[in-house]
Design goal:
Layout (H helix, E strand, L loop, with lengths): L1 H18 L1 H11 L5 H33 L3 H21 L11 H14 L2 H14 L2 H19 L1 H41 L5
Helix pairs in contact: 1-6, 1-7, 2-5, 2-7, 2-8, 3-5, 3-6, 3-7, 4-6, 4-8, 6-7
Length: 202
């Protein structure tokens, strides 16, 4: 039981950092600023649903998808890690991402937040690695918990933005960006090691 809890805590922490819902707070509030609370809640549900669908799809069909596409996990790790590193640097340097026009904000807010901001290559890679290390149950529960926490943060994003202020939100995004970049480096290194040790799989 202790091993299950420790694996769950680690998995939840890794997924929460990768999803980084706090980064999405200023973007989400900007996209939904003219919406009613009910519509904001709906967009938050869409974002979480989109991210959840992708994460559970790769959790269930992970290696089957790779077999069909004839690529290896190591190759995906390197590619996903590079993209995740770029995202982390963008977060740390304060580069704005996920911007969309106001005319389309009502229809795409949830989708834009759901992917690629929440569930991008880093989240997919993390799900695959967790399933490899812990099987299906631990990552499945961790995904549900991380998505629940993300939904709560997005639902109350306007209050969080107002409570923390732009300065604190910006600082937190930069710190989390450094953590994401660090995780990305580890993913890239692991992928390169996989390619070197198993050259016939890529």
């Amino acid at each position: 039981m202790t091993d299950f809890i420790s694996a769950l805590v680690y998995s939840f922490g890794a997924l929460f950092v990768i999803l980084d819902p706090l980064l999405s707070v200023p973007i989400f509030t900007s996209l939904t600023k003219d919406m009613t609370p009910a519509e904001i809640n709906r967009q938050a549900l869409i974002a979480v649903s989109v991210a959840g669908f992708l994460m559970y799809t790769f959790l269930i069909f992970n290696f089957l998808i790779f077999d069909v596409l004839r690529i290896s996990l190591a190759s995906f790790q390197v590619a996903g890690g590079i993209l995740l590193f770029i995202l982390g640097m963008q977060m740390s340097l304060g580069i704005e991402i996920g911007k969309t026009s106001k005319d389309h904000s009502r229809t795409v807010a949830g989708v834009v937040i759901g992917t690629p901001l929440l569930c991008g290559p880093g989240a997919i890679t993390t799900v695959l690695l967790l399933s490899k290390d812990y099987g299906m149950v631990v990552p499945a529960v961790a995904i549900a918990l991380s998505l629940l926490a993300t939904w709560i943060i997005l639902k109350y994003s306007a209050y969080i933005q107002k409570l923390l202020g732009d300065c604190v939100t910006d600082i937190m995004a930069k710190v989390l960006g450094m953590l994401v970049a660090a995780i990305a480096v580890k993913i890239i290194v692991d992928g390169i090691m996989g390619l070197v040790l198993l050259p016939g799989t890529h």
